[in-house]
Amino acid sequence: MVSYVRSMYLRYVGICVCASFCLLLLFGSLPGATDTCKCDDEQRDRDLQHEQFHKSFRVLEHGSDRKRLAIIVPFRDRFDELLQFAPHMAAFLSKQGVPFHIFVVNQNDRYRFNRASLINVGFLQVRDGYDYFAMHDVDLLPLNDNLRYEYPEHGPLHISGPEYHPKYHYAAFIGGILLLRMDHFAQLNGMSNRYWGWGLEDDEFYVRIKEAGLEVTRPKNVSTGTADTFRHVHDRVHRRRDTTKCFNQREVTRKRDRETGLSTIAYSLHSRRELTIDGVPVTVLNVDLQCDKQRTPWCECEPKVDTPSVKVAKKKAT
């Protein structure tokens, strides 16, 4: 009888030990309160590192000793071109070791496109974080590696000179791609805000540069020409330029503007978005420009309506 009780007792103890061991294994695999906090902290750290990577890795990967370039792209309704622009510029500038970031300044308002004002806004948004900037058309892609996006120490550096640009070849042309130091652009009071619609804002800016005594330089040792220095991806059929002139726009915009610029730009920042295109970080600034219709009523022009010509058949003499 004693041996039977002892046997049952040992079985009971064994069952309890096994059950306790199983419970320990089960609860040991579940995260405790401290483990949960640790996971949350690690996740937040990973998210923060991921965000910082996408915002600034093009600057960090080349180190802090290099001059930092902000690429300012005045923009509206050109997303297909932007999809080509961002990865192309990343590959092109990485070969030069230039730390850079792309800022797309998107005109969000209803007024006619104002390239110069968008460049002014972009400059004001980035000037404290970068050493120099490029005003860069989204449809002009550099092909020749001797087009160096280097720091323009002594004055504006015009990458797309008239001897290389696919379309414009006059001596005073400074459009397309122009690099400037931040202090030089501020010295010029930026660009004129009067140029709603397409054209002439670069010509007015050229006069500002000359009057300030700054010298425009262009890349050297470029052996290619107008056909193979750049790729121009603009579709003239589907993206017609707004060349309409209304009110006294033609007269006013052919004069040197001594009133408007960085000091008078009126705008609001609608939103700021961070995105990546083929792994390239891009900041989109959605901007609402303001128009003083007393001074520049041509920020809104009535669209041209093509009236079909009516041919009147002449009666044959009888």
From TrEMBL:
Record pathway: Protein modification; protein glycosylation
Matching SUPFAM superfamilies: Nucleotide-diphospho-sugar transferases (SSF53448)
UniProt cofactor(s): Mn(2+)
Annotated localization: Golgi apparatus membrane; Membrane
Ranges of residues in domain Galactosyltransferase N-terminal: 65-150
A GO term, aspect molecular function: xylosylprotein 4-beta-galactosyltransferase activity
GO BP field: carbohydrate metabolic process; proteoglycan biosynthetic process
UniProt protein name: Beta-1,4-N-acetylgalactosaminyltransferase
Species: Anopheles gambiae (African malaria mosquito)
